[in-house]
Design goal:
Number of helices: 21
Number of strands: 11
Largest sheet: 11 strands, mixed
Shape: elongated
Structural class: alpha/beta
Keywords: Membrane, TPR repeat, Transmembrane, Transmembrane helix
Protein name: Amidase domain-containing protein
Radius of gyration: 31 Å
Strand order of the largest sheet: 1-3-2-4-6-5-10-11-9-7-8
Organism: Solanum commersonii
Strand content: 5-15%
Amino acid sequence: MTKLNVSNPKVWVVIGFGFAGILILAEVNRRRLKARNSIKQDLGAFIERIELLPFPQPPPPAARLSLSGLSFAIKDNIDVKEYVTGFGSPAWKRTHEVATKTAMVVTALLKNGSTCVGKTIMDEFGLGITGENEHYGTPTNPKLPSHIPGGSSSGSAVAVAAELVDFALGTDTTGCIRVPVAFCGVFGFRPSHGAVSTIGVLPVSQSLDSIGWLSRDPSVLHRVGHVLLQIPSIEPKRTRCFVIADDLFQLCNVPKQKTVYVVTKTPKHLNLGQYIASSVPSLKGFIEQSTIQQNGMSTLRALSSVMFLLQRYEFNTNYEEWMKAVKPRLGSQVTNHIAAPVTLAPENIKVLYKVRTEMRVAMQNLLKNDGILVLPTIADPPLKLKSRKGLSAEVHDRAFALLGIASMSGCCQAAIPFGEHDNYPISLSFIASHGTDKFLLDTVLDMYSSIQDEVIIQSSASPLPDTNDSIDASELLKEKGNAAFKGKQWNKAVSYYTEAIKLNDNATYYSNRAAAYLELGCFQQAEEDCTKAISLDKKNVKAYMRRGTARESLLFYKEALQDIRHALVLEPQNKFASVSDKRLRKLIS
């Protein structure tokens, strides 16, 4: 190697460029590391951090604004003045100017005291339910980091679940709020179609889009709803009639013990697919006559196919010109969606809207003003990240059989976390008629505390046999009582056993209620229940033992000893009875 001539100016120029290159490379690496750490910090939920401060609080003695102290995030299809609305697409963001106005929904939240802290990642153009965005990455599901968060309001759900904000705004077209809240274990509310202003929000499909919100707390869900829906604070309370969609629960592997049985003791039952088939006549032309769908799902599959045709038709109407002009590089989900053209004739397009109208009328006739349809939010657990198989046809069909109901009827729907099964979040949904949003929000707020208690009881209960919905109601109540007893909730156990006795005069139910009464120190009631149990079943050992305990506590030792000896005759090896026998004989002597 030749020696460098340090006196040559060209050498110093080369050295200078080399040193500058090292500095630039170091700075690039530093920025990449900072960006990576930032993404880890917010789980990739935000595409852009912003700060929109709330409007000033009114001076005392006026009450504080209803959302004071709360923070929120918004999906990246919602306008904020002086920011570009990205729509989950770099190409869209690059070819559009900053918004000149802030969306009405955001302004309403700021006026009521909350602070906006950022815009969240979404599936590209809102066309997807996985939460994956090939351009910006996939937010990390806080509940299941190795699984998808669900979409298209993925960032909003992650921000709420990770406690980065108190609530978030999203949009729901074909399940875009309901899926991520189910996968991330939080609350979501899709309001009645048209109930919340869409001014300043980029549409996907105007006939299906709803602006909704997500939270961890039912009271926050309720408060945000009152602001956005402009609901009067005073409205008469109504009775609630729960309707269980039995056919839809057959799509879900979660035991009914952890879902349906938690909600209510006396629901109505319905095969929703059959009801829709008879109530939505324009749907008949879309039902596949050549195939027999399992569980009678052909009608609901047809409903979801109409939903997708309508979505594709309106999306293409909105954005076809831009797509042709810009020719953006699209993610595979969007490419597949746009590649399937809508080939229906104009008169058949009208049929899509007719199905939607008939569907709303059918749900109104079913639920009226006091009905609540209960169904799983989603049928399957979230896929693993970067799953090679992707969303299979079966998973797709099960998901949209459930999601199409509110989308096509325009009804309001609340998705509610119901604990876990096999380490996956459980989410149940309540659907109410179009326009009864306050009734539904009130129901969620009023019931959630008791739902939580029931979820805890059922999580520790023994699995119930799968009897295809024919399980005896009294046996179900007995099992609930047993679970409450095991959880040391004696009063609740008494309540369940009492309900079971009303349905069936059964010795075991009386004996079990007596055990709960013993724990509560209600010895006379325990004695009476055991006497009734013995009259129904002369060989009920537990009833003799428990009556003996009750009589001993009431200081009737001789009568107690008689009961214990009856138990020993029936079960000579009973160690507890032998010990009680010796103790009582000693007390009597």
